[in-house]
Amino acid sequence: xxxxxxxxxxxxxxxxxxxxxxxxxxxxxxxxxxxxxxxxxxxxxxxxxxxxxxxxxxxxxxxxxxxxxxxxxxxxxxxxxxxxxxxxxxxxxxxxxxxxxxxxxxxxxxxxxxxxxxxxxxxxxxxxxxxxxxxxxxxxxxxxxxxxxxxxxxxxxxxxxxxxxxxxxxxxxxxxxxxxxxxxxxxxxxxxxxxxxxxxxxxxxxxxxxxxxxxxxxxxxxxxxxxxxxxxxxxxxxxxxxxxxxxxxxxxxxxxxxxxxxxxxxxxxxxxxxxxxxxxxxxxxxxxxxxxxxxxxxxxxxxxxxxxxxxxxxxxxxxxxxxxxxxxxxxxxxxxxxxxxxxxxxxxxxxxxxxxxxxxxxxxxxxxxxxxxxxxxxxxxxxxxxxxxxxxxxxxxxxxxxxxxxxxxxxxxxxxxxxxxxxxxxxxxxxxxxxxxxxxxxxxxxxxxxxxxxxxxxxxxxxxxxxxxxxxxxxxxxxxxxxxxxxxxxxxxxxxxxxxxxxxxxxxxxxxxxxxxxxxxxxxxxxxxxxxxxxxxxxxxxxxxxxx
Length: 548
Hints:
mainly alpha; two-stranded antiparallel sheet; 2 strands
């Protein structure tokens, strides 16, 4: 049941905080305390699970009975050894971000609403990591989309945050639809939704070339739909338009979204890797490599620090896709954890006014992000170099004065420093097998410093810089494709709804009119019949008394 505690406590905190306004209670800062306590207990349970695995356990299952009449759809959680560090790491990041948010609350944020969205998002992430069957995984995916939307829309008073939430919602619908199609396809093919059973049946095909070819052909279409879902959730090309806009939301919300939620697509590919077609995984690596270089180039052109950080997230997640697609899931998980800790440290440290400690944490987190990359492919080396360059630019932008910096006290500083130091330690471990990666990153940092100080000048056409700063016009493509399609559907539904209402009103009026006319005729007939009966009765009485 310890695994259930890890998943259920964030959901429980979200439900309590969401219901508090309905019960007439304004929790204020107590909302942050409730959320932090739930996340602390969840992290403690995750650590206890990790200790059990260190002692020799290889898997952990929590079963709660059937919830749908389908094969393999028993309500159950499962955790295997490779994902134990992810469970511990993501709960730790969520706890530290919540602690920093509790110490430095942002003006204009409803603590209860924010806490509910935060808890829902963390619980959904834990469920993505531990769901045993495809249907429960899809439910977790939907909850994650809802939590992300609520987090990004937390500052609805900011038009930019409202627009970012809308983009997140639209892109999420594409990914959710793709994942639903994949789940239905797998069930139609294998008559089961249990991930373990699917993996065993696929392994059971043996090594016969004909059997393997038929299997891979059967897996290709659902695997491509899974890839679309992962790309949409992790803001990879061509779905990267939603993540940079989350820079306009609150610091804590942005920290959780960019550090953990953006990597959910990587988790999806890792969870489903045993049942994915090899071509889909190769496509994931290729798209990740292209996205990594593209987003790093866009990040270099940014003059706003938040936009730079957001585009760097897109680039770093692209490198994780390269790791998963290349068959190095363990490396991708290490990279995911280093990124989660480092990106949280960058976003939280940038807001703290304590210049030395906050800047040190920011620099440490940025350095950790710069030196992690899968040791393959030329695009990866280019991305690492560009990462070093924009990291130097980020440090320069973060040194500029800001009106929204806050004194967070020792608690926020301690949380940020722990995040930064853990990120650096993970980055060192990750880069240990590829010493050229930190060397290339440090070379990029040196180039970035030289560019910032004017020692080196790179002549670039103004139109190219402007195009890169705008994301190479992908926003316009997004408006002309996804938004236009959704608006057309909405207009059609609106017109259709009006027609249905008008038709229903006419039909109801017609039925009522016919009914009233029929009732009127019936009343007249009954009235005449009543008169006849009354006269006949009177005549009968007169005759009776006359005969007597």
